[in-house]
């Protein structure tokens, strides 16, 4: 039986941290600022409500820098997940969370607009499960004030994934999904 928590944690360690895909991940993990939460909702309304509840919790709890919401019962179709993302992004301002919480997103079938689904760069946002990464913007600002050239990170990740190739990255993701 698949274990979304275990697989996502392994993905963070074996891909995100190991290959420095997100240079802020390792310090956040070391300071215990990354929180994992399984979200069992499969309907758009319930998932949106849960996401916004978690976003409010994140904004109010200074110990948590970011939270991964792992959807284990829904949003397996990438298009459905994109719809959830659109609604979540649209609700941040009316909920008073603009400038407090940012949402990044990952999906097993992630595909950037106008990019071939087989292009290795898609793996920068592929994860074992549909996942929303809620990020405290204040913590992000502090991280960005350090020596990391954050604007270079996306291009560096694309180059890394292109060099590793689709087959290698898919095998890595498959091995994590088999845990």
Domains counted in the coordinates: how many?
1
Largest sheet at a glance? Answer: 4 strands, mixed
Question: What order do the SSEs take from the amino end to the carboxyl end, as H and E?
Answer: HHEHEHEEHHH
Distance between the termini: 9 Å
- How many distinct helices? 7
Decide which structural class fits the backbone. alpha+beta
Helix residue percentage: 40-55%
- Overall shape: it is globular
What would you report as the Rg, rounded to the nearest angstrom?
16 Å
Explain this structure to me?
- This protein has helices at residues 4-17, 25-30, 44-60, 78-92, 137-144, 153-164, 166-177, and strands at 34-39, 66-71, 101-106, 131-136.
- It has 179 residues and is an alpha+beta fold.
- It has one domain (4-8, 22-177).
- A 4-stranded mixed sheet has the order 1-2-4-3, with helices on both faces.
- Helix 3 links the parallel strand 1 (34-39) and strand 2 (66-71).
- Helix 3 (44-60) crosses helix 4.
- The longest helix has 17 residues, at 44-60.
- The relative contact order is 0.17.
